[in-house]
Structure of Ribosomal protein S18 acetylase RimI-like enzyme:
Amino acid sequence: MEIGYVNQLPNEIDLYELYGELNWNTFLKLPPYKLRKALENSFYTVSAYCEGKLVGTGRIVSDGVMNAFICGLGVSPEFQGNGIGTRLFKQLTEHAERNALHIQFFCEDEILPYYEKLGFKKFANGMMK
């Protein structure tokens, strides 16, 4: 299985389908064009493809000066466990570091050990409405 990584925005239908596989559409309740707009407005985006299929993506939302918030990082369940998420995350963090930005993100408690292995530490609690 060969995975290609690109810094181009995926088309809105592919993105919507990937978010559906991740069960994110139920929470977000956004049409495909708005998901695409969110990526267009991002500081940096990276996507992973296998044989032309979008299998993962992630992005940075940033002020470009101080903070980089990593969000929308996900890999199709069918392709999880192959290092794709790690590679996407590393590309995002490397881009933020090249721009001297402080990296922040939220994750669920059960995957804290994964990010700790990548050199990150828990620093705050988040809120959501």
User: Anything to note?
Assistant: The first strand starts at residue 3 and ends at 6. The chain has one domain: 3-117. The radius of gyration is 14 Å. The beta strands are 3-6, 44-50, 53-62, 67-75, 102-104.
